Structure formats: structure tokens, C-alpha cells
Amino acid sequence: MLLGIIINEKVNSSTSLELIRLTINKLNDDLDLINSTKFKLESIVKLINGTNPIDAVDAINDLISEKILVFISTLNGPLHRIILSYSNNFKIPVIHSDQTQNSFYVSNLYQLSIKPIYLKALADLIQHFNWGNVIYLYNSDDGLAKLQYLFNVLLEKKYEWKIEKIKRFNNDKDAHQFIQKLEFQNPEIRKNILLDCDADVAKKIIIKHIHDIYLGRRNFNYLFTNLIFDDFWFKSTKEFGAINITGLRIFDPQSKSSRDIFTNLGLIENDKLSNLAKQFTLEDAFIHDGLKAIYYSLNDLSEKINETINSTNSKCFGCILHSFLKKVKFVGLTGNVEFSYNLFRQNFEIGAVQMTTSSQMTLYASWTKKNKLVVIPSKLYRKENEKKFERKHVIITSILEEPYLMWRKGDKDKKFYGNERFEGYCKDLADLLMKSMNFTYTLRLVNDSKYGAEDSRSVLGWNGMIGELIRKEADLAIAPLTITSARERVIDFTKPFMQMGISIMIKRPKEKYSDVFSFLSPLSKDIWICVFFSYVAVSITIFLSGKISQIEWSKGNIGVYQDRKFLDDFTLVNCFWFSLGAVMRQNTEISPRSFSARIAGSVWWFFTLIIISSYTANLAAFLTVERMITPINSADDLSKQTDVEYGILKDSSTQEFFKRTKISVYKRMWEYMSSRPHVLVNSYEDGINKVRKSRGKFAFLIESTKNDYVNERKPCDTIKVGRNLDAKGYGIATPLNSPLTIELNLKILSFKELSELTKLENKWWFDRSECKSIEKRSTNNIENSLTLNNVAGCFYILMFGIILSLIVCWIEYYYGNKKNSILNLKKENKIKTQIPDLFLANKTIKLRCPIHNR
Question: Where in the numbering of this chain does the Ionotropic glutamate receptor L-glutamate and glycine-binding domain appear (predicted)?
Fold first, then answer.
């Protein structure tokens, strides 16, 4: 069976010819295995100038004269329409990869488009990027037809957009000059460019753009209309990563289906693509899939025709073969190959790809007719370490340090062996890691009980756990091992599994009992004194106004035997009562009538309003929050005083921090500590004991994690104050270039995301706390209610007022009775002296006796 293949002559035409040869040989081998009829696929390949119609006509005539049965063509535009006319006339099926969208409307019964109609995916991308203004640059004859097709698709979607500029360019220089003009006109406006050209021209345009120092990059977005990313394998061209580039792709040489096909063709060498496979273009992929479509149609055809292929009339055979070609379905280099009733590809998938900053292509989204555009989350994974850890059992070194690693406590009769001898944070962390990695491990203590420091007397110059890792005596070190630059030079560290820093530990201040008159605390003593004298001054001012101003006077009867006089209500006592009522927000049933008294009263009301409001606001803060008063609250407080001494652990990372610091506060603290050797302790226990015995006169600078743990242990007499002085981390240590490091990093990060490390910290620090009754960690448990001590003074004042009221009441009663008895006695004596005189005068007298209510 003879095939006629017409392809454009190009630089790498030899690659296309080799692909055709390999594919036909492989398909013939398969046909020999499955067909009882013996026929072979043969091909005649014509390389022509893609712009010369005469060459195209001559090539087609030559092929027809050779009695070919199928055309495979990569011609475009007018040349493509020529071959369609021949196909229609001679009833020869043609499988083409025409790039002109005009062919959508050409009526031809014998064509099959191996290249899908993908512009709907392009329209969805424009809508997804929300491009309202677009600049369209093209150099093809069907450029305007593509643009019209995009308009129709987006019109159906009711998406509003407009073409800001349209330019047909002749070459890359012409396009670059147009882009320069756009930039100079509006340098700040974002420019969304639809670029319709082939891969070579697009490459030149992008490179010219990047190399032009007068052209911006941030405001430019390029979207290619053609499937040029399939031919865009220019990894060495670093310019592509410097600007936003998006395009479409249907051929992925690295996909599983493509690699399977390359394997069958013998184009995989040492699990890598051969140089020939790397040079394949999209046209080559279409040619391969066209040949494979013929292969599958012949399979179906051979089952229903008993005659040999060569004896069949070519015209009739063309009709039959075309009907079978329409029904093929397979997976080729360009994905799923399947044809619809209108002879075009269906059920295919298009990938939207972008260029990364390293000039690599990354899949941004996928498009199918059914699901439309689906954005794919980024899947940039770290390359697996080629060096594998051969053993499944590791040696872990550690050090005894509460609560990281401790001897396990149990019954006296029960003994523990192996890893079960230990407990603590690091033991649980090792269990988590080894279980998730499917490893077993042996946990052992470091021989010299040291973390690790440079030591000229040790083998390879380091002691402790660091030395064991350098000498490969252990595979891992899981301990509170601080990540430092010096250690990082000789071993590897994972990501920190715990963050910490230098913190301040002091003795917990003794609880201070509230003063019974603490409700007076919102205002200072000076303010209370001023308020009192202001109260007296205002009361006297109102009293004097009442005496001087005639408006306050009124006529009143002050007794039976006295004459009428002018009186006012604002006696001295009433003035004090009026001023006190204003403070207490109570009505005194008297109010000033004169302007002077009213002015004095108004300013007094305003004064009391502000004072009472301020007092109420401060009272809430003073009485509802019980604040612990500490003598030291920060490192700055320590550095500015000498009453409280402070120290650190000798020969530790904390000492190195203070030695090398450039911060003035910490420098001053180091000068203080270095001049007093007794504040440099030999162990954590010595420093903690010194804090507990110092009665608040010593502060210990210690890692925050150790500080938190000690504060939760009995006798619960220490506390952490202030923020951390620095930020450091504990990491798992491995020998240099260990294959375990990357996997351990991923596990640590995974445990952080799942809160496993937080659970471990809570388990060993706070859930086992021995000081829960003294200080609850959760802020929800803070007691905000007032105690009796806070307001006891109010009750005292109330009781004092009640007692004073009863005493005054009794005095008033006693004084009133005594005064009345004196008045009655005077009246009786006066009557007695008047009665004899009345009788002597022989006068009739009338006695008016007072009537007493009983």
C-alpha cells in the first residue's frame, strides 16, 4: 500500500524522514503479525517549498501518478487547499495538519484533520486571565480568521473584551519596533499580547524584547495562538524566564504515552530520550499519528476484505479506507486520536503551559471540551536523592537531658531493655520518624556526655555527638542540639524541630495581697487630696454666693415669737450637701437660683463628670486584672541595674552569643558578667539552684525550652520574664551528604503541619506539669472576678457610715429632748410668774395650752 507524504522543507527535515522510516518499519512488523494477507506500507515523501504552489502541484501530480492510496500532508494555507481539491477529485483520503482555520469551512468528504481545533481553549485562557484589552500581532494569512473565530467564541460566552491594536508584521524586527512604540506611548499600562506566528519567529521576538533595555518586562504578557510550545524546546535560552509567556501544547515528549511510543521505535537510550527523539517537532508528531491512523484502519479493513489490497480499485478503495479512518481510536504522540462526524479531532486534551524563571516549561492548566479549563496546582517536587540509604536500621546518638531524654521510671521489679530504657521528647520523636520511614533503630547515649564542640584532643577535632557523626559512629543525633554555623560546616542539620531562644529566669515573686482600700488605687493620693479641697472650695463658694446675691433670698417665718426675715436655702451645711450630691449623682432637692451659684455648680458638675468617668475606667483595670509585679521584665532592665545579678552557663552557645553580639545592651551585659566570674555557672542545675536560693537577687539566662520546663517542676518557684533575646533552633544532625537528610526534612515539616511536634511538646512540658495549681497556662482560666480583699474597704466605709449614722441619730435625739425640756421649763416658769399678777388685777384670763399629739 503506497502512501504519499508531502511535508514542508525545513532545517530538520532529515529528522522527519527518519521518523517516517522508523514508524513505517515498526507498523509493517506489526501488520505481519496480525494480518493473514500480506501487504506492506510504503511511502513516497515529497519535500517542497511551503510558499511555492507550483512545487505543490508538481508533487501532488507525481504522487497521483504513482497510484498512492492516502495523502499525508503538513501543508498550510493556499497549498493545503490545493491538495484538498485533488483529494476531492480523485477520492483519495488526505490526513492533514493544516494550521489555517479557513479549512474549517472547506467542504471535503475525504479529509481528516489530525490537528485539533484548539482556539476554544485559547478563548477560555483569555477569559481566565481576565484580559479586557488585547493587542493582536500576526504574520499569517489566516490571522484575521483566527481572531474572528475567537470573537465568536467569546461572544457566545458573553465575555466583554476589545482589541486595542492589530498589527500584521513581516518579520521579527517589524514586530519588535511595534512593541517599542507601544511601550513608549504607555509605559505604565499592562500590555496583553496575542502573538500569532511560528516558533522561530516567536523566539526571536521574545529575545529581542528581553535584550532591549528600554522595554519593560513587568507589564507585558504574551499568549501564543499557535501550538508553538510543542516546538519550543530552547532550554538554553535563559531569556524565556524573564517575562510572562503562556502557550498551548498537545505534544509532550516526556509523557508516559510518548515514552512508550519512543520505546517501541527504539528511541529510548538508557531510560533517556535519544537525540533524534529530542529533535521531534509537532509536525513530526502529527505525521506519526497519521501513519498510525492508517495502520489501525488497515487492521479493521483486513478483517472484512478477503481480496489483496493491491488488486483493489484505488478510487473505490479510497472511499472504503476513508470510512474506516473515521472510526479509528488510539493514543498517539498528540494524545487521544479520535474523529467526529465532521472529520475533525474530538475528545482531545490541550495543555496550557508557562515558562518558569529558569526557562523551563511548567503545566499551568489543562483543557478539554467537557471540563473546559482546569488549573493544575503546582507540582514542583524536589528531585529524589540518587544516593539511597542501603540499610533499614540506624544508630541514633543522644544525651540525657530532661525532658528530652531520661531514664524510664517504672516498677522496681520491672526491667526495661534496649530503646525502652528511655523516655522523653526525643525518644517519642525518634519513634515517630522511624515508624514513618519504615526503619528500625538503636538509641544509645553519647560516650563523653557532650553535645559537641571543637576539641583538638578528639579524633577529627570534634567531641560529643558531633564527633560521633563525623566519625560515622552514628547515623543520626536526635537531641536538643543547637544549629550553629560552626557545626553546619562539618555535619548536616535538618529543619528545626523546635524553636527556642535565650530567656530570663527569675524567682517567682511572692503573691502580694490586695489592699482593703485598693478601690482608691485608680486615682493617686495627690488627686484624692485635690478633689477633697475642690469639694470644700466649691461648697464655700456656693454658700457665699447665697449670702451675697439677693436672688437667693426669700421671705420665711422662723418662729412664732420672731419677726419676719429674709432667708436663703444655701446654708453652709446645705452647700456641702449639694456638692456631695453632685459627686454621688443624687438629687438634693435644692438648686441655686443666682447666676454666680449656678456657674459654680455647673463647673463642679463638669469636674465631677470627668473625675468619675476616669475613676470608673481605671477601676476596671485595677480591680479585674491581678498583675504580678516583677522586679525585672526584660534584658534592658537587667543591664540598667545592679541590685539583681545575672549569669549564664559557662562554655555554652549562650556565652558565645554574648561574646560575639553587636547589640549594645547585650554587650553591656557581657561586660558585667565577664567581670564577675561567680555568675558563670558550670551547669544548668547550678544556675537554677542559684535562682531559687537568691531570694530574687539573681537572674539566670537560659534556653527558653529549658526555662519553660523548669517552671513547670516543683517547687514551682521560678518564672520566665520578658521575650527571648535571640532565635535559634534544635535540629536532627546527620553526617555530611547523608541520604537521610532530605527525607528527614520532609518528615519534620510534615509533623509540623500535622501538629505532631506541638503534641509532643505539650505532652512533656505542660500536660505533666507539677505547678497547675499555681499558674494555669490557658488564658481562659485566668480569674477576672473581684475578691473580697479588693473591695473590703467599701464594706468598711459602709459599716463606719451606718455606725456613725446611729451615733449621730442618738445625739440628735438626746440633744433634741434636752432642748425641748429646757424650753418647756422656761415656759412654765414664765406662766407661774404671770398668774398672781392677773388675779390681783381681777382680770379674767384665758389660758391657751398647747395640744400635743399622742
Answer: 403-471
Q: Give the side-chain half-sphere CA count within 13 A for 258.
A: 21
Same domain, 369 and 299: no
Residue 630 lies in a domain: no
Which residue in the block uniquely carries the three cell numbers 531520661?
Answer: 406
237 shares a domain with 263: no
For residue 781, give Cα distances in angstroms to 762, 772, 774, 789.
17, 11, 12, 20
Query: Quick one: 125 and 170 in the same domain?
Result: yes
Mean pLDDT by 10 residues, the chain (854 residues): 79 77 83 62 84 86 88 83 86 78 54 87 92 92 88 90 92 92 86 89 88 79 82 56 82 81 80 76 86 84 58 61 85 88 86 76 87 76 57 88 86 78 93 91 90 80 89 91 88 91 87 65 82 83 75 52 52 80 74 76 82 79 59 84 87 82 89 89 87 89 88 86 88 91 90 90 85 53 54 65 69 75 76 61 52 48
Provide the domain limits for residue 145. Answer: 119-255+349-375
Q: What is the DSSP letter of 765?
A: I
Closest CA to 348 of 361, 330, 322: 330
Residue with grid cell 561567680, as numbered in its chain: 678
Co-location of 238 and 357 in the same domain: yes
Q: Is residue 7 part of a domain?
A: yes
For the chain, the domain total comes to 6
> Three cell numbers at 115?
490537528
Cell triple for residue 312?
483493489
Give the C-alpha separation, 351 to 371, whole Å.
13
Residue 359: per-residue pLDDT: 66
- Ramachandran angles phi, psi of 248, nearest 5°: -115, 150
Same domain assignment for residues 133 and 237: yes
Phi/psi of residue 75, nearest 5 degrees? -70, 155
Indicate if 193 and 151 belong to the same structural domain.
yes
pLDDT of residue 445: 93
Of 561, 593, 624, the residue at which a domain comes to its end is: 624
The residues facing 346 across adjacent strands are none
Contact by Cβ (8 Å): 122, 229? no
Q: Assess if residue 494 is contained within a domain.
A: yes
Given a contact cutoff of 8 angstroms between Cβ atoms, the answer to whether 426 and 398 are in contact is yes
The pLDDT of residue 524 is 80
Query: Can you give the pTM of this predicted structure?
Result: 0.50
- Rounded Cα distance between 409 and 480, Å, is 21
CATH number of the domain within which 715 lies: 3.40.190.10
Same structural domain for residues 129 and 111? no
CB 491 within 8 A of CB 736: yes
Sequence-distant (6+) residues with CB within 8 A of 456 are none
Q: Output phi, psi for 533, to 5 deg.
A: -65, -30
pLDDT recorded at residue 443: 93
Domain boundary among 699, 726, 753: 726
Backbone angles phi, psi at 770, to 5 degrees: -100, 5
C-alpha distance from residue 119 to each of 99, 149, 680 (Å): 11, 8, 76
**695: region left, alpha or beta (phi > 0 left; psi from -120 to 50 alpha):** left
Residue list for the binding site:
480, 482, 487, 653-654, 703
Confidence at residue 81, expressed as pLDDT on a 0 to 100 scale? 84
CATH number at residue 199: 3.40.50.2300
Check if the beta carbon of residue 443 is closer than 8 Å to that of residue 396: yes
Angle of the 13-34 helix axis to the 282-302 helix axis, nearest 10: 20
Domain assignment present for 556: yes
Q: Nearest CA to 451 among 470, 471, 432, 467?
A: 467
Here the CATH number for the domain that contains residue 599 is 1.10.287
The residue to which cell 483529494 is assigned: 87
| H-run or E-run covering 395 | strand 393-398
Q: For every residue of 716-727, which 3-state class applies, written as one string?
A: CCEEEECCCCCC
Q: Which residues define the annotated binding site for L-glutamate?
A: 480, 482, 487, 653-654, 703
Q: Is 748 found in the same domain as 718?
A: no
